[in-house]
Amino acid sequence: MTVAHDSTRRTVMAALVALPLGAATTASNAQVGEMRQQGSRTLVAYFSRSRNTRVVAGLIHRARGTDLFEIRPASAYPEDYEQTVEQARKETESGYRPPLEATVPAIAGYDTVFLGFPIWGTTVPPVVRSFLSAHDLSGKALIPFITHGGYGPGNSKSVLASDAPKARLLDGFVMEMDQERRTMERVTSWLSGVPQT
């Protein structure tokens, strides 16, 4: 790979992260945090600590014209990576589900939920399990998009099936994020095979 190609790749990825994820935010969204509504019957909900999952969420949101919601814990995870890993480990082992900063208003209005998260300790982050506990996804198509650092999706499929038992769990998208130069093409290719709802 050339230095010029590497520089271009980094510029494109930085631009994707910097782009606003939604074209419009309604006034009522101010108290909801990062909820972006476009009147869609499809929601992209995501949790992202390092912004990798946020990039994929933004690509799906823009490609499908979805509503968008960022999942955030009421108390942010530590800035320090090792402290976050330790906190997440303790939460997972104890079954703790941290309170959310906000929930999705009128979740019943969505037919499809794309749910994005990174793999933490071979599983779904506790805050995403909080999201699943706080929202009734009965009858909705639940489509995961998962980022990881090299260990694959872990036990995420069984966790989603357990925590959203009445949702229709569809095959999702899994990507190792050190392959960032292929993110856009892989997400676009994957989305072309996901039925419009």
From TrEMBL:
Residues 1-30 form the signal peptide. It comes from the Bacteria. Keywords: Flavoprotein, FMN, Signal. Residues 42-191 form the Flavodoxin-like domain. InterPro entries: Flavodoxin/NO_synth, Flavoprotein-like_sf. It holds the Pfam family Flavodoxin_4. This is Flavodoxin-like domain-containing protein. It comes from Achromobacter mucicolens.
